[in-house]
Write a structure and sequence with these properties.
With 702 residues, the chain is mostly beta strands. The chain has eight domains: 1-33; 36-106, Immunoglobulin-like; 118-200, Sandwich (Immunoglobulin-like); 204-280, Sandwich (Immunoglobulin-like); 286-357, Immunoglobulin-like, CATH 2.60.40.10; 368-445, Immunoglobulin-like; 452-530, Immunoglobulins (Immunoglobulin-like), CATH 2.60.40; 539-701, Galactose-binding domain-like (Jelly Rolls, Sandwich). 4% of the residues lie in helices and 47% in strands. It has a seven-stranded antiparallel β-sheet with strand order 26-27-30-29-28-31-32, with no helix packed on it. Strands 52, 53, 54, 56, 59 and 63 form a six-stranded antiparallel β-sheet that branches. Strands 44-51-50-46-47 form a five-stranded mixed β-sheet, with no helix packed on it. A hairpin with a 2-residue loop joins strand 60 and strand 61 (667-668). The radius of gyration is 46 Å and the shape is elongated. The termini are far apart.
Length: 702
């Protein structure tokens, strides 16, 4: 049924909703524009001082009326939240009013006016810490704190006296030269600043004696107000707080062992550093003599002179530090000469970083070769080198450039095995410091047979048949491959050709085939690279496997996993580029999974091994392996192509490098645990196309 009054009801409801909406919008607009006075201060306030008014929508304020009817329209600050203004002299106590377009906003609390605090003078003008400072003025009874320069505040509970016209206060230790200020201590304080500066006396060092001074002895400082000093600062070390004696005109203080040249600092309770008028000079040692000279590496020298007790470090030639032995005095010390030191001037250093050089070069004893027994020998045989100071010898270089470590070295003799490939000629002994002494006569290499090898493969793999071509090969009875593995399978055997299968147990890497004649004599082939991969003996000594033990940085190459190239299905590193000069392959730092602690100083018992697959011939440059740490920067170059002109493996092989062949200036690694910096490998010192895969970089016990 149609009911007309329903339309009226609907219209009425719509009108009410519209009215409510208008009312809501109006309230929102009012809330956005209404001026509110939230707070003001300071109160009490000083005429001429600053009044701060905090609120909302203060940008709509056109004037502030201060009591009694003082109209202010010029503001120092005028923002929506803050108004600041200077309080006129006519202002009295009462409410403040804000003039706005919507009307007046009146404060609930009253503005009170403080009587003007006056800081008229203070005396004396110059004070020492602990002196009494008298401050005169008016309304000083309202003061709650005296503030010295450097924001050192003394509260009224520590005032010696206080009245309306005068305050007496003790100058604190930390006070510094500058104006003083008075504060009434309110939440929004009145602060009165002095016009003149209060001079706070500081200690001054005018004379230092003795100068130069010896570290560890007493220095006398003369000057003024020295009783104010709390610390004496020396260059290069921490300030000294304990004195031998102290008065107003003198301080006696022990000079620290590590004090350096420079002005000393007198530091009072204010921590203002006052430098001395003169510079303090530290004494240095004076070297009179070093004996014996020449001296043998590893033995001791006696140093005489003056102030030798200042010496903390002695550095010999080659930048090798010697050990200062106990029992030394100011006039004599004993120092052990490092076995790796070279000839040169000796440097003496103090804790003050002073350096003094010896006046003469310290010469070193060199080995003397008098004879070799026997005077001729075959490859692999042990010979004895006789002479003097041969305990300095670490290796022997045979003619042909082959260098081998000695078996034993005593003062009168050293023994060594003749390396395969050595030639007849002089030999040279190499000492721990890298110096060389050659024999004045030749050492003769005996050949075991008339057999001569003119050609043979440079590399082969177990199971391969190789051709050995030469002359008088029919004199050879047995063929023994590296690892002392005898050959059992042959093809043709004539005076000019031997065809032999490489036994499956042959040791991989570069080695020599040994031949035994029918007379039982031994004859060795040129080097041959037996291809093959050694199993990883100790996984904990692997430090690059590219399956988690990866590279942090490098210049070329990256991790791959091509099933056709992978050694065992795992990741490997691949470089494939034309290289010239230094090009990094893979590197990390010693703090990251480097197994040096497991080996420590047992360097001679371990080798570095890595598996490599050279896919295209390498014709130049070298692989520079690096182990760097606290003991030095140790390198070992790997370049099997240097003598043959090119090198390619056509399959994975294991390369072995003795750890004691990593050298820094001729010095081997003393402790693998100290490899704390870079380790890795780079291409360097040449040009070549390099297409290689590398995996399982590790250490292994020999």
């Amino acid at each position: 049924m149609y009911r007309p009054y329903n339309i009226f009801i609907y219209l009425l409801a719509a009108f009410l909703a519209f009215a409510l909406l208008l009312g809501s919008c109006k309230k929102d607009d009012e809330a956005k524009t209404t001026v509110e006075l939230l707070s003001f201060g300071p109160s009490p306030a000083l005429r001429g001082g600053e009044l701060r008014i905090i609120g909302t929508n203060l940008g709509r304020v056109s004037a502030v009326v201060l009591p009694d009817n003082v109209n202010v329209t010029t503001f120092t600050t005028h923002t929506e939240e803050l108004i600041t203004l200077a309080i006129p002299e006519a202002t009295v106590e009462g409410h403040i009013i804000l003039k706005t377009p919507d009307g007046e906003v009146r404060s609930i609390s009253m503005l009170t006016i403080s009587e003007p605090i006056v800081l008229a003078s203070f005396s004396p003008d110059t004070v020492r810490s602990g002196d009494v400072l008298a401050i005169e003025g008016d309304y000083l009874n309202l003061i709650r704190a005296v503030i010295f320069s450097s924001d050192v505040s003394v509260g009224d509970t520590l005032f010696l006296s206080q009245s309306k016209e005068k305050i007496e206060v003790k100058v604190p230790d930390a006070a510094q030269t500058g104006p003083i200020a008075l504060s009434n201590g309110e939440e929004m304080p009145i602060v009165v600043l002095s016009e003149k500066t209060l001079e706070v006396t500081v200690p001054k060092a005018l004379q230092l004696s003795p100068n130069p001074v010896k570290a560890g002895t007493v220095l006398t400082i003369q000057g003024t107000d020295l009783d104010l000093a709390r610390q004496v600062g020396f260059e290069g070390t921490n300030p000294v707080t304990a004195f031998v004696s102290q008065s107003a005109d003198k301080i006696e203080v022990m000079v620290p062992a590590d004090a350096h040249d420079g002005n000393i600092l007198l530091i009072p309770g204010s921590f203002v550093e006052v430098p001395s008028a003169v510079e303090l000079i530290m004494m240095v040692p004076e070297i009179a003599s070093i004996a014996p000279n020449p001296v043998k590496n590893g033995e001791n020298v006696t140093v005489t002179g003056v102030n030798l007790d200042l010496i903390t470090r002695v550095v010999f030639g080659g930048n090798k530090a010697g050990a200062i032995l106990g029992g030394g005095t100011a006039t004599e010390i004993r120092v052990k000469v490092p076995v790796s030191a070279t000839e040169g001037l000796v440097t003496f250093r103090t804790a003050a970083e002073k350096e003094v050089l010896s006046t003469q070069v310290l010469q070193l004893v060199q080995p003397v070769i008098t004879s070799i027994t026997p005077p001729e020998a075959r490859f692999g045989e042990e010979i004895t080198i006789e002479g003097e100071d041969l305990d300095l010898v670490r290796s022997v270089i045979f003619s042909g450039g082959l260098e081998v470590a000695v078996n034993n070295a005593l003062p009168g003799e050293a023994t060594v095995n003749v390396p395969i490939g050595a030639l007849t000629g002089p030999i040279a002994v190499v000492t721990s410091n890298g110096s060389q002494v050659s024999s004045a006569f030749d050492f003769n290499i005996l050949l075991s047979t008339n057999a001569v090898i003119s050609s043979m493969p440079a590399m082969a793999a177990p199971g391969d048949m190789i051709d050995i071509v030469g002359e008088h090969l029919d004199e050879l009875n047995e063929v023994i491959f590296p690892g002392e593995v005898p050959a059992t399978m042959f093809g043709m055997k004539t005076a000019t050709l031997i065809q032999v299968f490489v036994p499956m147990g042959t040791a991989t890497g570069i080695g020599n085939i040994k031949f035994i004649t029918f007379d039982g004599e031994e004859f060795f082939s040129p080097p041959i690279n037996i291809q093959g991969v050694d199993p990883v003996a100790d996984p904990s000594l692997v430090f690059f496997n590219f399956d988690g033990l990866d590279s942090w940085w490098g210049d070329t190459g990256g991790i791959e996993n091509d099933p056709a190239l992978s050694l065992d299905g795992s990741n490997y590193f691949r470089a494939n580029a034309d290289l010239s000069g230094w090009t990094g392959f893979f590197w990390r730092n010693g703090a990251n999974n480097f197994p040096g602690a497991a080996i420590g100083t047992n360097i001679s018992d371990y080798v570095l091994k890595f598996d490599i697959n050279v896919l295209e011939p390498i014709t130049g440059g070298e692989f520079s392996w690096r182990l760097k740490g606290a003991d030095g920067d140790f390198w070992r170059a790997w370049k099997p192509w240097s003598e043959t002109g090119s090198y390619m493996t056509n399959g994975w092989v294991t390369v072995t490098i003795p750890l004691n062949e990593f050298l820094d200036g001729g010095n081997p690694i003393p402790d693998l645990n100290n490899i704390s910096e870079d380790f890795g490998v780079a291409f360097n010192n040449g040009d070549s196309h390099v297409n290689v895969c590398i995996d399982n970089v590790r250490f292994e016990e020999r």
